[in-house]
Amino acid sequence: MDPVTLACIVVPLTALLYVLRALNHRRGRAEDECRAAVLGADPYRAAAGRRRAEDDAQAAAARLLLDGLATVDHRGSLSLTPSGADPARTAGHPLPDALLAALRRRTAPATLGGIELGDSAFRAARQDFHTAWRADLPRSGPGRGCFTAACALLFSGETAFAAAALLDTAPRGPLPWAAAAATGLALLLQLTWLDRYGRKGPPAAGSTSPAEGPALHPALAELASRDLLSRDRLRASRHRSRRRRSRGRGARPGPGT
């Protein structure tokens, strides 16, 4: 293929490729900033992505303890205080309120793990809360990933074809040599783009990287600074699905004994 004709095809395609990459990077930064704003509006949203001992349900229980609406004993059982048993008292947030309602439905103290496992109303309230705010997160179009992958494959084929055409015949004259040099530089830039395909840039301002994770919920941080014993009991409560029988209580006598 004539080097000048090849350069007229490859160089504009390379420029278009980098323009699209810049636009895609700008859109990704905007989505990251929007995601960080949505998560930062409510710490219970960011806590949903943490491990069990630091997630939103754990933070809701910590808020009840800090507000004096519930207590946790050495067996990890949560129980209402007189203030928590008052129907007029609320925790001021849907998740702690749902946990408070779950405790009020119980006739005996319960572990946080038992409520999470056995209380369908609490699970439904928790799911409804997260479903509502996740609807505001930016979402990619259903075919965006496939379209980008298809473009990468097309550019891979175009790069291979252009490289083969460039090496097919030696250019003759200053203009063909200049066109061949421009084509070679454009092909190198395309290979650089393909090498960086799929890699994410630095996180946007105010966002957190996946390795760093979301910040610890303020209620959990406050509970850890004020009452380490209650913090440890609450962690144990999360991993227990049943109340433990008191060691001083014997087994019920069977009939006829």
In short:
Helix content is 61%, strand content 4%. The protein is mainly α and 257 residues long. A hairpin with a 4-residue loop joins strand 1 (70-72) and strand 2.
Fraction in helix: 55-70%
User: Distance between the terminal alpha carbons, to the nearest Å?
Assistant: 102 Å
Order of helices and strands: HHHEEHHEHHHHHH
Number of continuous helical runs: 11
Overall 3D shape: rod-shaped
Low-confidence stretches: 203-212, 243-254
**Mean pLDDT across every amino acid position:** 78
Q: What is the strand arrangement across the widest sheet?
A: 1-2-3
Q: What is the alpha-carbon Rg in Å?
A: 30 Å
Q: How much of the polypeptide forms β-strand, as a percent range?
A: under 5%
Q: How many runs of DSSP E, i.e. beta strands? A: 3
Classify the secondary structure makeup into a structural class: mainly alpha
Tell me about the largest β-sheet.
3 strands, antiparallel
Note the main attributes of this structure.
single chain; 257 residues; 3 strands; mainly alpha; 61% helix; 3-stranded antiparallel β-sheet
What does this protein look like?
- By secondary structure, the protein is mainly alpha-helical.
- Helices cover 61% and strands 4% of the residues.
- It contains eleven helices and three strands, in the order αααββααβαααααα.
- A three-stranded antiparallel β-sheet has the order 1-2-3.
- β1 and β2 form a beta hairpin.
- α3 crosses α10 and α8 runs antiparallel to α9.
- The chain is rod-shaped, with a radius of gyration of 30 Å.
- About 9% of the residues have low confidence.
